[in-house]
Amino acid sequence: MRPRPIAPGLALAALCGLGGIPGCQMYQPAPIDPAAHDAAWLARTPADASVLEFARGLGGADLPGAFDPADGLDLREAEVVALVYNPELRVARLRAGVAAATAEFAGLWDDPEFSIDVLRIVEGVPDPWIISPGLSLTIPISGRLEAEKARADAGHRAVLAGVAEREWQTRVEVRRAWLEWSAARLRADETERLLGTIDAVVGSAQRLAQAGEIPRTEAVLFEIERADQRRALLRHRGEAAVGEQRLRGLMGLSPAAGVQFVPSLAVPVEAEGGSPPLERSPSLARLRAEYDEAEARLLGEVRRQFPDLVIGPQFESDQGQSRIGLVGGIPIPILNANRQGIAEGEAERALAAAAYEGERERLSGAWSQALARLALEREQFEVLEGTMAPLVDRQLADAQRLVELGEGGVIVLLESLSRAAQTRMQVIDARLGIALGQTELAAIAGPPGPPEPLELSEPSGSTFPAAIGENASSEVESHP
């Protein structure tokens, strides 16, 4: 007969409470508080102490050393805020914290196991009880624990590489959203200026129509054009409003947060050339770290086929006679030998290698495509800015002068206004295309310097994520 405890959790809790088990921890509930989170989220601003402190620590990084949100946010400052408050980054950093906890306590020895057998002889004897308590300890002679530690450290490094990749992707997403919003703002500004010109021309056309110098139908055409441009202005303003809310979402700010953006279609040009700087790629760094993790896992699976020694003292009381001895055991790897785990480890290592090699090929192809697209956008912009825009502006000025002198040309003026509006929108689109092309090259190349995650500290009284943890320092043993 081997008795089993009825309530092991209660018994363990009692032992912990009495100090019988050193290092034992108790469960502490931590319920989610949506109201507190919403209050902290609504109170966020770019001028928060956490943002300012983080920005001050970026002196040597590829981000602005001076951070002043009082005069409005530019693109670089918006990237800083997104690195602090982006919700997906928060989740990625907390996942890194999970991996850090795994790596910190990986490779520990198994707890010793206490067992007891209690038998009672049913026949009448003076002492009918046979009691056999024992204590067994697993001695890891196979090297399995070292391999588990190496795998956990490699997994932590892979997650940290994923955090660095997510940080760069967040910055790229902010740049793209910033450019789209800036283009919408510039389209709205250009349309407003064009409407001012059209308003003046409409008045002149109406006076000419009243004087009988032009038909009434021609004067109405200007009013139609003005109404069409007003409709376009509403659309551009609406697109700018949508783009601003998208930026706020990427930056982790509420829709009502006090922040002003300074539109610009200029982006930092970090890399441009014939071949991509693959050594900077965050995605390649992550895939390489995942390959190292697969290597470490295979090493652990190989080590698991070798047995660990189980040994410990044993005491027995049989009918009043006491015996002391030693109990031990060791598995014999002749049937299982962890063949399944080793086969899976080899397959995962091959998969990780293929993923890394495929990403190198994809990045090289994407780099060439981005260069070709950027060259096309630049050619379009040079034609528009160097040839089309001056011709259209001159034609519009000449047509306006003719109308003001009363020499007719009303239809020419209307066509010139329409062509001017179209050309200005095309110039903005071309500038946007160049900036997006440069951003695409930056997204492929990665940030200057090695792709490492940025460390953030948790401010008090907020729901900001804690630090992502420190890089694991243990080396991963290679499997031959």
Could you explain the architecture of this structure?
The chain is of the alpha+beta class. The protein has 10 helices and 4 strands. It has helices spanning 8-17, 34-42, 49-56, 75-85, 87-104, 144-210, 216-250, 282-304, 339-404, 410-445, and strands at 113-120, 129-139, 309-318, 321-329. The protein has a 4-stranded antiparallel β-sheet with strand order 1-2-3-4, with no helix packed on it. A hairpin with an 8-residue loop joins strand 1 and strand 2 (129-139). The longest helix has 67 residues, at 144-210. The two termini are 49 Å apart. The relative contact order is 0.15. Residues 1-12 and 459-480 have low confidence and may be disordered.
Which tags fit this structure?
disordered C terminus; 59% helix; elongated; alpha+beta; disordered N terminus; 480 residues; 4-stranded antiparallel sheet
Number of helices: 10
Structural class: alpha+beta
Return the average pLDDT rounded to an integer: 82
Quaternary form:
single chain
Weakly predicted, low-confidence segments: 1-12, 459-480
Distance between the termini: 49 Å
Rg computed from alpha carbons, rounded to a whole number of angstroms: 36 Å
Give the overall silhouette. elongated
Secondary-structure element pattern, one letter each:
HHHHHEEHHHEEHH
How are the strands ordered across the major sheet? 1-2-3-4
Helix content: 55-70%
The profile of the biggest β sheet is: 4 strands, antiparallel
* Proportion of residues in β-strands: 5-15%
- In total, the number of strands is 4
